């Protein structure tokens, strides 16, 4: 709990050379007694420091030195705010003085708890035969920090993005059953995070080398499917996964990724528009890469490279990333 300092001057000095009457002296004592009673109550609440009277006397002496013996600088208004390092820097010139003990400038985003005491001395320069009216007002002001809930989007956080591409071989009659044989995962910057040959759980009847690039020797000491699946899913967990016709990759893994964390570059109208294709056209990864980057992929007779395809997919996504993410956020 921070310390709260407040400086209050209850008394009104009598100019030198003038002797107060009995009624004036009686009224002054009565007012002082009432004031001390109020101060005792506030002190019991813990609103004052022990050195408050010393500070009051010191400031009064300073004011007397500057303004002369017949000039009194009574604090007509003083505001004390909560602070971490109390400091006192009062102004002693003039009748009204305002002391701001806040630790720093206030901001619009956060208004700290403040406790304000206003001490007003009216008719401070009246004649000796006029009564002195001392009014003390205490005000408590509470303000809490407003709760701010901002929509957190993954834009600009590269560690949230992964691009995946898988190569399949065939099993069963005439190789009609697709089996996972290689999986490559790259980061937002195109670095290879995962790239392994995977030994299918079924006997391979068609290696589909023309498209997959898989040969029998690649699967001789490959990672078993069950183990590889665990490794891959551990990497994909909680990430935004990007792929081209990615449903085929998930089907080979026997896995379903959350839809709000999945980005399929074969179903982005923005990409088709940039490439000059119809918005509903399902263009191949090879055609999109050629149209947008003027670069050829999946060339030669050695088949596809899942690393090359994953990198191309990530590059295509980054072309429309900002606009696409904003569209998804507005429709969600």
Describe this protein's structure.
By secondary structure, this protein is an alpha/beta fold. 31% of the residues lie in helices and 18% in strands. The chain is built from nine helices and nine strands. Strands 3, 4, 5, 6, 7, 8 and 9 form a seven-stranded mixed beta sheet that branches. Strand 4 and strand 5 (192-199) form a beta hairpin. Helix 7 (285-293) packs across helix 8 (306-319).
C-alpha Rg (nearest Å): 40 Å
Distance between the termini: 44 Å
Residue stretches low in confidence (pLDDT < 50, at least 5 long) are 70-154
Question: Strand-residue fraction?
Answer: 15-25%
Number of helices: 9
In short:
By secondary structure, the chain is of the alpha/beta class. The chain has 9 helices and 9 strands. The chain is 31% helix and 18% strand.
Topology overview:
Layout: H1 22-44, H2 52-67, E1 114-122, E2 133-141, E3 161-171, E4 177-187, E5 192-199, E6 204-206, H3 209-212, E7 223-224, H4 225-236, E8 240-243, H5 246-253, E9 262-264, H6 269-275, H7 285-293, H8 306-319, H9 321-331
Parallel strand pairs: 3-8, 5-7, 8-9
Antiparallel strand pairs: 1-2, 3-4, 3-6, 4-5
Give descriptors for this structure.
332 residues, 7-stranded mixed β-sheet
């Amino acid at each position: 709990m921070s310390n709260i300092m407040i400086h209050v001057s209850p008394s009104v000095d009598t100019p030198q050379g003038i002797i107060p009457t009995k009624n004036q002296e009686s009224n002054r004592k009565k007012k002082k007694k009432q004031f001390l009673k109020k101060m005792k109550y506030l002190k019991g609440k813990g609103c004052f420091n022990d050195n408050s009277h010393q500070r009051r006397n010191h400031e009064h002496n300073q004011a007397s030195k500057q303004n002369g013996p017949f000039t009194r600088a009574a604090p007509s208004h003083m505001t004390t705010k909560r602070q971490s390092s109390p400091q006192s820097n009062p102004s002693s010139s003039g009748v009204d003085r305002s002391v701001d003990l806040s630790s720093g400038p206030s901001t619009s985003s956060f208004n700290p708890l403040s406790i304000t005491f206003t001490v007003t001395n009216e008719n401070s320069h009246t004649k000796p035969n006029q009564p002195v009216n001392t009014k003390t007002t205490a005000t408590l002001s509470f303000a809490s920090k407003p709760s701010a809930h901002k929509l957190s989007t993954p834009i600009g956080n590269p560690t949230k993005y992964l691009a995946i591409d898988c190569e399949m071989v065939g099993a069963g009659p005439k190789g009609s059953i697709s089996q996972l044989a290689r999986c490559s995962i790259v980061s937002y910057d195109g670095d290879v995070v995962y790239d392994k040959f995977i030994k299918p759980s079924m006997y391979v009847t068609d290696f589909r080398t023309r498209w997959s690039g898989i040969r029998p020797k690649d699967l001789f000491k490959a990672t078993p499917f069950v183990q590889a699946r665990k490794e891959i899913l551990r990497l994909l967990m909680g990430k935004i996964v990007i792929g081209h016709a990615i449903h085929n990759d998930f089907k080979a893994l026997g896995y379903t990724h959350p839809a709000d964390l999945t980005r399929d570059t074969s179903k982005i109208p923005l990409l088709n528009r940039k490439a000059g294709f119809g918005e509903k056209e399902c263009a191949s990864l090879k055609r999109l890469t050629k149209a947008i980057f003027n670069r050829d992929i999946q060339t030669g007779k050695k088949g596809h490279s899942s690393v090359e395809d994953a990198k191309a997919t990530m590059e295509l996504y980054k072309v429309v990333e900002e606009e696409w993410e904003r569209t998804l956020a507005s429709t969600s």
